[in-house]
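Below is a filled-in request sheet from our internal design queue. Each sheet records the structural input a requester submitted and the sequence that came back. We keep these sheets so that new team members can see what a complete request looks like end to end.

REQUESTER: design group, bay 2
PRIORITY: normal
MODE: inverse folding
CHAIN LENGTH: 915
BACKBONE (tokenized):
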């Protein structure tokens, strides 16, 4: 790209960031060098050449080779490759093959998981509108949406997907659903008036329409202000296309483990080589001995076993509605300290629901039986018939909760504005069916909702009264507007003049519902002897009879409050991040016990006023963020991460995608979630149930705990082998041959280690605080246990060899050492099921997988000694009863010794607690 092109690109980007919502109609036209008649075809072609196609640019994709190479940058993998090379040089081809298989398997799994950003961008592109109606040269034509350019004049109608970012210049009852972009659960009423402030969040930009949002009502005309990556959706696309270099806590721990092993292996090899040279042995012999010891120190099966344990966790979680897209995410969940959750559709049902009604001068909640209350029949009539929602039969039990289609009960599907749908569903549950009502009281005239009037009116023909026709005018709308048009009120089955006391009572009820963040609509009617000749609003919507108020909200999911309680008990802090209004967010958060009062709420505008250091110091004070943009969500997530917290982010909309990707673990919604949000997520909730996250966290904690147990088992076993060989070399004992170490590692490091991965979670696992991401894998006594248990295994093995060497012959001594080292690891695996609890408390044989694994591995160790051909191959001999008794006693003695150590640990913990 030339310097001129770079400057032009920057100018275009700067232009797209202009606050067009603050400009007037004429200023917008002038700024974009356009006109009300649109661009000419020549100008459109020139701008298309300059700005490029209105399509989201794909991320730069790695080649398969590059992805494979990236998998081999891990320290442990490099060590394993060196070990495979050395094993091959020493003639241990089986060992080398096993290591290489492990390495290749890990690399293949890594490559298969590396398509998140690509899938997310593909999904974003699919959300774009394929065609658009534009005015060019004064004529309305249809063009491909990808050919739109800044300055184009676009016509929008109900059902359209907005094809670019647009500044509206005409609006006729226009409503646009922006939930996927802003998180607001109801369509936004649009107008054309310029806004005063330049820092207004997306959800409050009433004169703008944004790419990928949907027109649900009315029509409008607007001028394109941004295309492709210069749209709000484009900014999200450019963020999620960036490479994610963050590594999970588990990967950090395994890298840490690899570094430890590198140091240990070098030290052991150097010491052995030095001792041998000091003793006067041949340098080549000592070099081979040193390398053999180093290879023995490497737990080559660890990466594969960790991968399998994670995979088993994935299978268990899938059965419990949590779909893992990336294996390490299982473990990351276990260390989650902060859950930043979108409100709409995640904490709430994404479905407007009537919570309270005011009728016959009384405020009633949703459970009240309205059939006994005067005026309720007319109230249900007005809320249902002055309504454009359609009801259709369906074979499904539920509609699409992610759109404006909702199902109130089996067999019914609602199509329409979520607010109107809520009214129809409320009435249906009280035995007033809109379809029957429309047949009985047919609509004869209407005044559609208008954002200026803030009212909607329909006229229905009622059953004749005493032979005279009756036409009922039904009106619903904003309480303050409608109340001014009401001169009478329906109370106690009669219509009376509206008094000031009546008005005060209505206003008080309205205020009460508004304080609960309910969206309030007023309802009124009037009966006329004939169909109005003129449908002028000032005539039809005058001298109305007030019938009631209706308060609605997108309510919390029933199970979420319990899930929030469990999160808090587990030391996890839930944070609500939403594009909805402050009052609505605060009301939901209070109901869910996320906050106690509104001091814990911060709006996007207030967040803009905080510089980064100030926000970093105050981020812990807030648990609710309202009216935020996608950039705000990312900023919040990153602020918590800078505090050293492991952050999970849940969400379902396009607006959540950047924060989902920026978090340590992104959790998408499987049902209501967009393909974009699911594409960048590490985990997807199949049932969109927030409480499923709690189950996933528990599973993550269990998986990490079991991985630590496996690491403890493998490293203590390998340490035992290394110390045994190290001391034997110093004493000039030929205690074990390379094939013995290989066989023991192959037999004891596989099935028993995997069985540890199936250990049940400890009962209090969700009452413990989450571990810090900085906590070492050796913390909590694991490192100490590895050292003393490894030394104990070595001591018992050496003692058995010494006894056999002094009481029998060399062949018997080697065989006894081999059998002891193999069996002692199989008895010790029961010890590591808990570092503090006695195996007799948790149940010696309560893990049936471990029982069978230990039995099978034990048989494989014994077969080598018992079977004639095998014992010759392994240079061992059969043992008599006395020798077996010594071996078994040595192997099982590690259990009571470790139990005594655990007893002292428990006593020490109790003393600290008492102190």
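RETURNED SEQUENCE:
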């Amino acid at each position: 790209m030339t310097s001129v092109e770079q400057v032009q690109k920057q100018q275009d980007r700067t232009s797209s960031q202009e606050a067009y919502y603050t400009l007037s109609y004429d200023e917008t036209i002038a700024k974009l060098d356009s006109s009300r008649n649109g661009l000419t075809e020549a100008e459109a072609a020139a701008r298309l050449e300059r700005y490029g196609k209105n399509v989201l640019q794909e991320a730069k994709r790695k080649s398969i080779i590059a992805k494979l190479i990236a998998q081999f940058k891990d320290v442990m993998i490099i060590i394993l490759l060196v070990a495979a090379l050395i094993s091959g040089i020493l003639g241990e081809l089986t060992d080398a093959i096993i290591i290489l298989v492990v390495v290749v398997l890990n690399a293949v799994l890594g490559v298969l998981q590396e398509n998140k950003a690509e899938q997310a961008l593909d999904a974003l592109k699919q959300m774009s509108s394929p065609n658009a109606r534009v005015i060019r040269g004064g004529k309305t034509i249809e063009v491909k949406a990808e050919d739109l350019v800044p300055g184009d004049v676009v016509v929008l109608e109900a059902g359209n997907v907005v094809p670019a970012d647009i500044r509206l210049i005409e609006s006729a009852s226009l409503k646009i659903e922006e939930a996927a972009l802003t998180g607001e659960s109801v369509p936004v009423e649009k107008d054309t008036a310029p806004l005063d402030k330049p820092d207004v969040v997306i959800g409050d930009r009433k004169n703008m329409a944004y790419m990928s949002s949907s027109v649900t009502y009315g029509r409008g005309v607007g001028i394109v202000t941004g295309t492709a990556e210069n749209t709000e959706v484009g900014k999200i696309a450019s963020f999620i296309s960036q490479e994610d270099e963050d590594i999970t806590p588990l990967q950090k721990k395994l890298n840490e483990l690899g570094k430890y092993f590198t140091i240990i292996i070098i030290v052991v090899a150097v010491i052995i080589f030095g001792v041998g040279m000091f003793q006067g042995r041949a340098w080549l012999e000592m070099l081979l001995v040193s390398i053999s010891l180093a290879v023995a120190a490497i737990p080559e099966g660890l990466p594969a076993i960790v991968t399998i344990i994670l995979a088993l966790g994935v299978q268990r979680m899938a059965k419990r509605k949590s779909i893992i897209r990336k294996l390490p995410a299982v473990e990351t969940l276990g260390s989650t300290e902060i859950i930043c959750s979108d409100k709409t559709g995640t904490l709430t049902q994404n479905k407007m629901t009537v919570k309270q009604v005011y009728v016959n001068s009384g405020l009633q909640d949703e459970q009240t039986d309205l059939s006994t209350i005067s005026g309720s029949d007319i109230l249900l009539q007005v809320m249902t018939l002055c309504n454009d929602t359609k009801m259709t039969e369906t074979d499904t039990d539920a509609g699409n909760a992610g759109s404006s289609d909702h199902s109130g009960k089996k067999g019914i599907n609602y199509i329409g504005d979520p607010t109107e749908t809520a009214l129809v569903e409320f009435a249906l549950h009280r035995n007033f069916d809109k379809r029957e009502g429309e047949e009985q009281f047919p609509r004869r005239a209407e005044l559609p909702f208008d954002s200026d009037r803030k009212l909607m009116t329909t006229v229905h023909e009622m059953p004749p009264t005493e032979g005279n026709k009756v036409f009922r005018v039904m009106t619903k709308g904003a309480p303050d507007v409608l109340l001014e048009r009401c001169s009478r009120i329906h109370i106690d089955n009669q219509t009376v003049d509206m008094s000031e006391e009546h008005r005060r009572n209505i206003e008080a009820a309205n205020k009460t519902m508004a304080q609960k963040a309910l969206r309030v609509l007023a309802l009124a009617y009037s009966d006329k002897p004939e169909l109005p000749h003129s449908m002028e609003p000032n005539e039809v919507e005058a001298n109305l009879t007030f019938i009631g108020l209706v308060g609605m909200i997108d309510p919390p999911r029933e199970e979420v409050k319990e899930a929030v309680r469990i999160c808090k008990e587990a030391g996890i802090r839930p944070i609500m991040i939403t594009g909805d209004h402050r009052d609505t967010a605060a009301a939901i958060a209070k109901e869910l016990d996320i906050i106690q009062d509104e001091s814990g709420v911060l709006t996007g505008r207030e967040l803009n006023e905080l510089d980064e250091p100030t926000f970093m110091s105050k981020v812990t004070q807030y648990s609710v963020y309202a009216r935020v943009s996608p950039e705000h969500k990312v900023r919040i997530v990153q602020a918590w991460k800078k505090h050293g917290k492991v952050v999970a982010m849940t969400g379902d909309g396009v607006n959540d995608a950047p924060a989902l990707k920026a978090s340590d673990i992104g959790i998408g919604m499987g049902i209501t979630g967009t393909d974009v949000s699911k594409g960048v997520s590490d985990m997807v909730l199949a049932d969109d149930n927030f409480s499923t996250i709690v189950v996933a966290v528990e599973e993550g904690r269990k998986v990490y705990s079991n991985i630590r147990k496996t690491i403890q088992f493998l490293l203590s076993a390998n340490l035992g082998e290394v110390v045994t060989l190290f001391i034997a070399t110093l004493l000039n004992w030929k205690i074990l041959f390379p094939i013995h170490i290989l066989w023991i590692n192959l037999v004891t490091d596989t099935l028993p280690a995997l069985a540890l991965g199936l250990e049940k979670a400890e009962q209090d696992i969700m009452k413990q605080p989450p571990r810090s991401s900085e906590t070492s894998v050796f913390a909590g006594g694991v490192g100490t246990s590895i050292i003393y248990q490894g030394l104990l295994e070595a001591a018992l093995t050496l003692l058995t060899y010494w006894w056999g060497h002094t009481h029998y012959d060399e062949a018997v001594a080697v065989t006894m050492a081999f059998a002891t080292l193999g069996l002692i690891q199989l008895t010790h695996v029961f010890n590591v099921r808990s570092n503090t609890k006695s195996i007799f408390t948790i149940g010696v044989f309560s893990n049936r997988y471990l029982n069978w694994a230990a039995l099978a591995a034990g048989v494989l160790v014994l077969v080598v000694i018992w079977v004639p051909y095998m014992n010759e191959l392994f240079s061992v001999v059969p043992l008599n009863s006395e020798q077996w008794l010594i071996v078994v006693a040595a192997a099982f003695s590690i259990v009571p010794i470790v139990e005594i150590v655990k007893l002292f640990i428990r006593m020490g913990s109790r003393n600290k607690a008492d102190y």
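SHEET NOTES:
- The radius of gyration is 36 Å.
- The chain has five domains: 20-50+131-240, 64-128, 250-317+696-914, 322-349+557-688, 355-396+411-548.
FILED BY: M.R.
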